[in-house]
Amino acid sequence: MNIAFIGLGNMGAPMASNLVKAGHSVTVFDLMESAMQALESEGASRADSAEEAAHGAEVIISMLPAGVHVKGLYLGRNGEPGLLDAVEGKPLVIDASTISPDDARAVAAAAAERGITWLDAPVSGGVGGAKAGTLTFIVGGPQAGFDKARPVLEAMGKNIFHAGDHGAGQVAKICNNMLLGILMSGTAEALALGVKNGMDPSVLSEIMKQSSGGNWALNVYNPWPGVMEGSAASRDYQGGFLTDLMAKDLGLAWELALGSKSSVPMGSQARNLFALHSAQGSGALDFSSIQNLYRAGE
Ligand code: NAD
């Protein structure tokens, strides 16, 4: 298929790369020149704008940081028309960014007015999952759109869920990431407690993995440097899933809670911890660097 891919960051670049490997004809666009060069060397074509990338595309995929970028891309910004007004034909549009359900519904509705199906399809699985092509996609939108998207998503992911109508993918993703934020900060707290009481972090990790404290953060994303080969913690927390993006997702959870009068005490605590960690200068580090909050003064 002819696919336009917009947003080649930590997640988008390996996802686009897997589409190329699966034999799709992929045209990429990112604001960062270097990101496009890397994809070009893997067999993608590069464009000078999102509009150019989308020219003739049957499927458009975006992987951008936040709702402001997604709305800007599709609906336009500063009075400029957005991509929905620039595309010819009726491409299927799949946005894999994590944004608010309201933003997803607003863009989907604007697309529907133009006869275009726009799906929210946020992902879980991290950069490791993006590279391995084992991401979980959590899709919101009509069944027909989901059925059309599935074969494309299968080139990048292993578990493809239809969560419900527009916005439902984001609701499920936000619930998941609120739990992840809680688990990562809790894991960091437990590890620091053990180490301050004489435990080796690797020994403690192995014990908790095989015990009732085992969880995704501990099992596959250990936040203590040196415990897990290849983890963000073992490369000075470079790359991965940025603290600022986790803080954004916990903010989205907070907005959902306000709107639905839900009580999220643990999620609120996690949001405050990641906001504090970001304010202390760690916004551009992987979110597992929350470990450092508990190591101050060592
Ligand atoms: P990132 O910051 O690494 O990459 C975002 C990319 O988008 C950058 O390369 C940036 O230049 C580009 N960009 C921004 N605005 C653009 C525009 N208007 N046109 C073209 N390119 C533009 O972010 P990421 O880690 O790849 O995350 C992307 C999304 O996926 C976020 O919503 C994040 O919450 C979500 N997510 C990330 C992870 C992870 O582990 N990193 C996991 C699951 C979900």
Brief summary:
This is 3-hydroxyisobutyrate dehydrogenase. This protein has 298 residues and is α/β, with parallel strands linked by helices. The chain is 49% helix and 13% strand.
What does this entry look like structurally?
By secondary structure, this protein is α/β, with parallel strands linked by helices. The protein has 2 domains: 2-164, NAD(P)-binding Rossmann-like Domain (Rossmann fold, 3-Layer(aba) Sandwich), CATH 3.40.50.720; 171-294, N-(1-d-carboxylethyl)-l-norvaline Dehydrogenase, domain 2 (Orthogonal Bundle), CATH 1.10.1040. The protein contains 13 helices and 9 strands. The chain has helices at residues 12-21, 33-40, 50-54, 67-75, 83-86, 101-113, 126-132, 143-153, 168-196, 201-209, 216-220, 243-260, 265-282, and strands spanning 2-6, 25-29, 45-46, 59-62, 92-95, 118-120, 123-124, 135-140, 157-164. The strands form 2 sheets. A 6-stranded parallel beta sheet has the order 3-2-1-4-5-6. A 3-stranded mixed beta sheet has the order 7-8-9. The radius of gyration is 20 Å and the shape is globular. Bound molecules: nicotinamide-adenine-dinucleotide. Nicotinamide-adenine-dinucleotide binds at residues 6-12, 29-32, 35, 50, 63-65, 69, 72-73, 97-98, 123-124, 126-127, 240-241, 245, 249. The site of nicotinamide-adenine-dinucleotide (NAD) has 29 residues, from helix 4, strand 7, helix 7 and helix 12.
